[in-house]
Structures are given as structure tokens and as C-alpha cells.
Amino acid sequence: METQSQQRHSIIRVLTIVQWILPIILFFLAASFELGEHIIYEHDSLSPAFISEMAIFGVIGPVTVWMVLRWVRRNQKQLEIANIQIYEMNAELEGRVAERTAELRDKNQKLKEANEELQALDDLKSDFVSLVSHELRAPLTNINGGIELIARHKDKLPERKQAVLDILRDESERLTHLVQNILDVSLLETGKLQPVAGPIALSPFLNTLLKSRMHTQNYYTITVNAPHGLPAAWADETHLADVVINLVDNSIKYSPDGGEISVTAQQADDEIIIAVQDRGIGIPPYAQKHLFKQFYRANNNNNREVYGHGLGLYFCRKLIEAQNGKIWVESSGAPGEGSTFSVSLPICELWDDNDADTLD
Ligand code: ADP
């Protein structure tokens, strides 16, 4: 840019000189030629021919050349000015880009630091949660052991104490389950707990898992439907059991008028879908996308009266995602029409159709 501008500058300087010198030279050339021709050779000084030729070649010609050169010089000058402006704008833009880049680099650095801080806090939170739940588990095991010991002589206790014992047992079981779930999820989040996946034949798995719930409750019915020959799912048995129990218990909790709770397993392409459907209070559409978040409890048909922490579905999501599966809900939101919670899991790739006979 610098050399280009210098070149243009010298061209303009040369043009300024040529603009004046060339017409003068042309004037003298024309004058000497016309003088020679008319005065020296033809001796007819100031004849009309001499005057008109002098006017054309000595005046109009040089003046035209002068004007053309002036036009070229002016154009060059404007070009030079435009170039300088472009150069200045370019320099300014480069400066601004450099400034913004530096700002962005600065912001990026700050974001990175904030991110690292958040990550560190998150790790701290997970460590704290797993420490607390770990510390709670030991006394809970002792309490459960004590309750079971007393429960062996339950029939010798007066009726009121038996009822208190039952409540103690239920609450302690619930607390143990909650603590175990919190511990599992915090370990999953920090990558310290890897699901141990294996093939699960769903018909025997679901029937055995839900047997106790099928027989003990009577204001609703639980049906299990897993077709013969259904391929095995590839999942962690303990975690899948936790998820199914969680969903079925929710169906029981949120179906105050009872009704059928059906648990079905079926194949969809290369996945197994387990669905738990109830005829309970349903879930309004606006709440459905929040259900799987921590501590979220939908305000569906005054469910606040039902005991809960809003953690069960969050645990389910975490446990299922750790097994490369998905979980979702469908519900019209109308009471009595209930909801359907579904879980998808990968099919066991080692599955052979003949295995159905041995596993069912
Ligand atoms: P909790 O039941 O302890 O509140 P969950 O995470 O299991 O926590 O469930 C979150 C919310 O989702 C519940 O508070 C309830 O509003 C809604 N919910 C879950 N399952 C059902 C269901 N089967 N029918 C209606 N609402 C449900």
C-alpha cells in the first residue's frame, strides 16, 4: 500500500509538470513550423491561412492537450484520495477486530475459569452428597436390623405397638431406599459407578419383581404383559428394577381411585420399550417436560397431599441414561385417563430366538 501510494504520488507530480510543459512545447513547435512555412518560405505574413493554422495547431491543440492532461491528473488524485481512505478504514477495522478478539479471548478465559469453578463446586457437591449418604447408610442398616429383630416377636406386642412398628419399618425402608438412590446417582454423576449391564429376559424379570405388589394391594390391579419370544434387554438388573419399581409405585401413589396398572414390554426396532400405564390423576402437558428434573413435583390434582420429594423420576432418568436408554411420559392430563411412563433400552445383541424358550 505504501509503495503503491508513492508510485501514484510521483505519477501525479509528473502529470502536473507534463500538463504545462507539453502544451508549451506543442505551441512552440506549431509556431516555428507555421512561421517557417508561411513567413520564411511563402513570405505571406499574417495571411488568413497562417492565422487559422496558428489558431488550430498553436492554440486549440495545446489547450486540448492541457485539458485532457488536467482531467487525467484529477482522476489520479481522486483515486489517490479514495485509496488513502480505504487504507485508513482498513487499518481502523483491523484495529477493531484485534480489540474484539482480545475482548473475546478475555471473556473466554473468564468463562473457562467460571466453568472450572462450577465443575469443582459440582464435584464438591457430589463428594459431599455421597459422603453424607454413605455415612447415613451404616446407621440405617443397624436401624433396619433392629426393627427386623423386634418384628420377629411382633405378635407378642400390643396392637398399637405393632402398628407403630409397621410404620417404623415402612419409613425406615423408604429412607434406606432414598439414601441408596441418592448415593447411586451421585456416584453415577461422578463416574464412580458404572452400570453392570447384562441380558435381562423381561417376562420373568417383571413378574418376579412385581409379584409382591400384585398380591399385597387390592384397590387396583397390576398386570404384566411381556410377549413370548421378546428379545432380552441389555441393562443393569438392579438399576432397571429400581426404575420399574419407582414407576409402578408412582402409578399406585397417583391413582387414588385405583384401576388397572399395566406393565408391558415390547420390541420396537432394535429397542425394548417397557411401559407403565395407569388410570390415575394424569399429568398436565405443561408439567411433563419438567418431571425428570431434580425436586420437581407437578401440581396435578393436588398431588401435594401425596408424600414425595420429586426425586424418583430424576433418579430413573439418571439410571436409564447411564444404560444408554431413554425415559419419557405421555398423558392427556385428564384425571382418570392416567399416564404412561415408558423406558427404552437396547436389545441384547447376543440374543438368539431360541433363547426365548430357555429364558421365558
Ligand atoms: P415424587 O413422587 O416423590 O413427588 P417423582 O420424581 O417420582 O417424585 O415424581 C415427580 C412428580 O411427577 C410427582 O410429584 C407427580 O406430580 C408426578 N408424577 C409422577 N408419576 C406420576 C403418575 N403416575 N401419575 C401422575 N403424576 C405423576
Task: Provide a quick synopsis of the model.
The chain has helices at 2-41, 48-151, 159-189, 202-216, 237-253, 285-288, 312-321, 355-359, and strands spanning 197-200, 220-225, 233-236, 259-268, 271-277, 326-331, 339-346.
Shape annotation = rod-shaped
Q: Helical region count?
A: 8
Radius of gyration from CA coordinates: 47 Å
Instruction: Report the CATH C-level class of the largest domain.
Output: Alpha Beta
Major beta sheet summary: 5 strands, mixed
- Give average pLDDT, whole number: 88
- DSSP, total strands: 7
CATH superfamily of the largest domain: Histidine kinase-like ATPase, C-terminal domain
CATH fold type of the largest domain: Heat Shock Protein 90
Q: What order do the SSEs take from the amino end to the carboxyl end, as H and E?
A: HHHEHEEHEEHHEEH
Number of domains as seen in the coordinates: 3
Fraction of residues in β-strands: 5-15%
Task: Classify the helix fraction into a percent range.
Answer: 55-70%
Query: Which structural category do the helix and sheet elements fall into?
Result: alpha+beta
Show unreliable segments.
Answer: none
Which small compounds were modeled alongside the protein? adenosine-5'-diphosphate
CATH architecture descriptor text of the largest domain: 2-Layer Sandwich
Strand order of the largest sheet: 2-4-5-7-6
CA(first)-CA(last) distance? 83 Å
